[in-house]
User: What shape does this take?
Amino acid sequence: MSAFSDQQRDTNRLRQRVDAGDKARDRQQREDVTIEDPRRLFLRSPNGTYWQVTVSDAGVLTTTNMGSNPL
Assistant: This one.
């Protein structure tokens, strides 16, 4: 085998690994997210305020202003 063939094979392997990584990231972005106790959900508004989001057993969402640092 020539050095060119080895280099081409290595390039193809690298391309396959990159493609596989891209596909894995795409799958992660499409997956649902479930947060179970004791974890909390914080969302940051455009002005930098953090809001804690909770849900009751009746499905009512409540937000609590956590200021500029939720922890």
